[in-house]
Amino acid sequence: MLKLFLPLFLILTVSLFNLVKSKRELAITPPLPILPLPTYAQLEWQQREIIMFLHFGINTFTDSEWGTGKENPSIFNPSTLNANQWASVAEEVGIILMILTAKHHDGFCLWPSQYTDHSVISSTWKDGHGDVVEEFVNAAKARNIDVGLYLSPWDRHDWRYGDDLKYNQYYLAQLQELLKRYGSVKEIWFDGAKGAGAPNMSTKHDIQRHFNGFRYVNMGDEKGTDWSPPECDTSIRPGWFWHASETPKNLTRLLEIYYTSVGRNCVLLINVPPNSTGLISDIDAQRMREFRSAIDTIFSVNLAENCSVKASSQLGREEGRFGPRNVLDNDHLWTYWAPSDEDDQWIEMNEENEGWRFNVIRIQEAIGLGQRIKQHEIYADGKIVANGTTVGYKRLHRLEGVVHANQVSCLALSKRELVIIPPLPILPLPTYDQLEWQQREIIMFLHFGINTFTDSEWGTGKEKPSIFNPTSLNANQWASVAKEVGISLMILTAKHQDGFCLWPSQHTDHSVISSPWKDGHGDAVEEFVNAAKAPNINVDGKIVAYGPAVGYKRLRRFEGVVHARQVRILKGCLWSLVLHFILILFGTQISYYFREMNIINLLPLRLSSWKAWKNFDGPTLARLGLVFGLNLHPFSSDTGPGGSA
């Protein structure tokens, strides 16, 4: 019997099978993930599989694909526009995210933007009082469908386009307008399209990189640090906007698109453009229903649902949480088969009776733990019937004709392995917001409330609001002080333990409402917010400083002024010393690995180990420690006895 290999976490799908897990089984350590990893939002997005694109705008009324920006807004008049019909079509075909072209390249805005009159404001539709984006958002949310918005960076109408500073301000203002006005937006589309002949990155700059003497064009790096899933966009019609002369693609073509997008680890963004009356044409809606029905029919039955499954090995016991039968589970991302650490990893499904007749095979990985498969083959009764490279979230194989077999097995010709040194940076990683917050360094806290008038620290909650009366309260003065000292974040005690609220809360009268300050019409929080937003180591071989972890920043002040020609950093923790030995033995290979990872660029530092250990010139060890800054500050009498480093 042919035994074939399958990389870690392979899932052939298909229906829920609940397992009773013993305490012993639950105690088994899950497999280590391989970087990069998707975020929860990316996992959620990937499982949508199909998203609906709605190209609608002034081009719908000019029978064009790319407008010139010179169109008269008065021609925009979708007389029977019904966004509820759009959402209804999406709901019927199981789509839970729709994206609307709020502004295409012509610059015409489907919402009443305060930054331009080239919008629905100047149209005859609803006498200039309509808002397509608002109707779209409300219709989608009424059916629990998420929304996305397309905002073209290229604007052929606005005079500021071409002036980077002025246009960027205009564009960002419109982007903020959309995101603030219409609530939660799950996806934003920034289309990179621009007319032929216009300067672009490839014509203005030589972007080809040289790597080890060869020209190197990066089309995605499996050793990269960011999970970047692909999205395939296409239209149900030949064009993106509705044209009376065009008809939708046939079902065969749509299924071909599905197999080569969703079936190749992508999310399919399919455009269904509303017509000039403001409705999705009946023929388009019907084709989408046929498309969904065909997909459901093909994948509603898993012929292997009740088969026997064998594998080369597994973590835990026979039918444990990582057992081979998990490949038949519909909960693809959270239940999976995981073999033990062996070179040979294979899985095999058997039907002992009449066998199967099939022509589609679906393979999935538990991408929540990273993507491992690099190359695979599938066999039926010992004969190869399909092969491919990566799998990821989903890979669909359509076979040449119907295959009749009693045994299906999978082989991994190559897979990604964990390296000896775990990929850096070390998890968990800070978010962009956390990095930004860390760099503030100093934040101003403002304790202010009824305790200010009772000369106490912790109020009892029995204080009378009438005693709160800051007669000359000036939040601008607070913000001015913060600005003077370079503080960019202030925090106000809107409510302390005493329960007194500095804003007129609608849920209690134990607040400024009941105070004499401004006759009960004041709002300290509002004044605070408005005011805040308005102002918008080892030297020359002698130890002179040492300490524990560094983190974002560590300042060392020396005893006296240090005069030196060389500064060295020594990382004294045990794992660094072990890495020293590894670097001595495998320095070249590891340095190459980190260049591939492209983790960080560093200033050249001379780093040394204990006494007689080998010195390493260059950033190799610093890469392992992720050192990104080492500054020496000159002596100043203002800082006391010595500068800092």
UniProtKB/TrEMBL annotation:
Gene Ontology cellular-component annotations: lysosome
Family: Belongs to the glycosyl hydrolase 29 family.
Transmembrane segments: 574-594
Superkingdom: Eukaryota
Secretion signal, residue range per the UniProt entry: 1-22
Keywords: Glycosidase, Hydrolase, Membrane, Signal, Transmembrane, Transmembrane helix
Pfam families assigned: Alpha_L_fucos
Record-linked InterPro entries: GH (IPR017853), Glyco_hydro_29 (IPR000933), Glyco_hydro_29_N (IPR057739)
A biological process term (GO) from this entry: glycoside catabolic process
Keyword Transmembrane: yes
A GO MF label: alpha-L-fucosidase activity
The protein, known as: alpha-L-fucosidase
Ranges where the Glycoside hydrolase family 29 N-terminal domain occurs: 72-196, 464-538
Enzyme Commission number, as recorded: 3.2.1.51
Keyword Transmembrane helix: yes
